[in-house]
Amino acid sequence: MTDTCFVGSCMPVLVRIHHVEFVDPIYPGLNSLESLELFTKAMKTEPMSFLQRSVCYDKKHKLTLAISLGYVVQVYPSVLLPPELERSKRTYIAFNRMSQRTEFDFDTKEIQKSMCKKPILFFLKDVWKDGNITRGSYIRSSERDDLKRKVFCFRSPPLSDIDEIQVSASPLSKRWHLAPRRLCSAVKGYVNGTLFMFVRQCVRGAFGSASDSLD
Q1: Quick one: DSSP state of residue 21?
Q2: Is the pLDDT of residue 75 over 70?
Q3: Which fold has domain 4-213?
Q4: What is 65-134 written as a DSSP string?
Q5: Which PANTHER family does this entry report, sorted A to Z (predicted)?
Q6: What is this structure's pTM?
């Protein structure tokens, strides 16, 4: 496997940054060194929330948005609940070539093969501080399946008129490492081809992004 999107958005944090010489550059359009420089910049800008995941929904367009802060925003063309998204994709097979889930004790899920159900990806382009708020610009990735989606999928690609997603994140409290650790996020609006989102630490009593977005 050389696709770092699976590694960066699905694996535990300690696994993600290993063996980068054997995979494609972390960010499309950059070489390996440039990717590592941007990766490090994102990590140093907001280390406590770096690569933490958050899920929210666009009710109007019936979309699911999964954010891995400092790396990628995945836009799914349907509503998927957090438990389904939180399970890691199985990117490996057993030595005996068996691919059933029962071959391992890990709680994993199959990689989605249907292009119509795969997410549209927006990769980090830049990250910066605006006072105590961290802002990141995520640019739409040019996918080889874009034309096929338009021809074969019942629905058009999600957010076809959006080229950029800007994510603003408020700082975490000093107790960020204690439960509950889930980040909450929300879609703020669309302006001139840009989608704006906000990520914050969930307040006490909040179930998560799903409860904020699906009421």
Answers
A1: G
A2: yes
A3: Cation-dependent Mannose-6-phosphate Receptor; Chain A (2.70.130)
A4: EEEETTTEEEEESS---HHHHHSEE-----TT----GGGSSS-EEPPP--TTTSPEEEEEEEEEEETTEE
A5: FRINGE-RELATED
A6: 0.80
